[in-house]
Write a structure and sequence with these properties.
The protein has 233 residues and is α+β, with helices and mostly antiparallel strands. The protein is built from four helices and 15 strands. A hairpin with a 4-residue loop joins strand 6 (86-91) and strand 7.
Length: 233
C-alpha cells in the first residue's frame, strides 16, 4: 500500500514511532491544491506517494558479528559470503529488506515511512540480543539516504505528457535517449530531487533525503509540467 506524504512525519523526515500500516495521509497543503488548466479543463495537482525509503543505521556491537551463524539462526535470512559481504534479512512487519554487515551496519530498503525504517532497525537489534546472549547491541546512528515517490498526472483520453517538447525546452537540465530508456530524466537546479517523466503522465521523484525535499521539488516540477499535457499528434 502506498503511503502519501503528510502529517504522520515531520517535514525533515523525522523518525518518531508510528504504526506500520494505516490509511494514506495527504500533504498538509492538499486541501488547497492549485488548479491548472489542461485543454480548458481544470486539473488538480496530484499528491506524491512514497513507495520506498532507503535508510542506513549503525548498531554498536561488543564483538564482531558472525554472519554464517546468524544465517543458521534466522530462517528469514540468506547469506553467501562469496557473492556479498552482508546477510540479507526479510522482515514482514514492517515489510522491508535489510542488509546486515559484520560491523553492525544496516541498509534498510522497502519501507514506506522513516518510522517503519527506524522500527526495522530496532527489530534487528532485538533479534540480535536474543540470538547473541551476552553481547551488547545499541543503535548509535540512523539516517535517511533516499526517498522515492511517484505521481500520476491527470491525462485524458488521447493526451500525453509531451516529454520530447520538455526536452527541447529544458535540455540543459535533462537526459532523454528514447532508444535506451523511455523516460526523461530531469534535474532542475536548486531542487533536491531528480524526476523521471513518462509519456503516460507518470512522474517518479527520487534522490530526496526528506519529505520536505519531495514536497518542495514537486511544487516546482508540477508547475513546469502543466503546459506539456497535450493532445497526441
Amino acid at each position: 500500500m502506498d503511503v502519501a506524504i503528510g502529517c504522520a512525519q515531520t517535514a525533515d523526515g523525522g523518525v518518531g514511532p508510528a504504526p506500520s500500516d494505516g490509511p494514506a495521509v495527504g500533504v498538509g497543503s492538499a486541501a488547497a491544491s492549485s488548479p491548472c488548466i489542461n485543454n480548458g479543463e481544470p486539473q488538480i495537482k496530484p499528491l506524491p506517494f512514497i513507495h520506498n525509503i532507503v535508510a542506513t543505521a549503525q548498531i554498536h556491537t561488543s564483538a564482531p558479528l558472525h554472519l554464517d551463524r546468524l544465517k543458521q539462526i534466522f530462517r528469514f535470512s540468506s547469506f553467501n559470503r562469496r557473492k556479498f559481504a552482508a546477510v540479507t534479512l526479510r522482515l514482514v512487519r514492517p515489510n522491508c529488506t535489510i542488509l546486515l554487515f559484520t560491523s553492525g551496519k544496516l541498509v534498510i530498503t522497502g519501507s514506506k515511512s522513516s518510522s517503519e525504517a527506524l522500527l526495522s532497525a530496532y527489530r534487528i537489534r532485538h533479534l540480535l540480543r536474543k540470538a547473541c546472549t551476552g553481547q551488547c547491541f545499541e543503535i548509535i546512528g540512523f539516517e535517511i539516504q533516499n526517498v522515492v515517490s511517484h505521481c500520476e498526472l491527470s491525462i485524458g483520453e488521447g493526451e500525453i505528457l509531451d516529454i520530447e517538447a520538455l526536452y527541447e525546452r529544458y535540455h540543459i537540465y535533462s537526459t532523454y535517449q528514447s532508444h535506451i530508456f523511455p523516460g526523461l530524466i530531469f534535474r532542475y537546479p536548486n531542487l533536491k530531487v531528480v524526476a523521471l517523466m513518462f509519456f503516460s503522465g507518470k512522474v517518479v521523484l527520487t534522490g530526496a533525503k526528506s519529505l520536505k525535499d519531495i514536497d518542495d521539488g514537486w511544487d516546482v516540477i508540477f508547475t513546469l509540467l502543466k503546459p506539456y499535457v497535450v493532445k497526441r499528434q
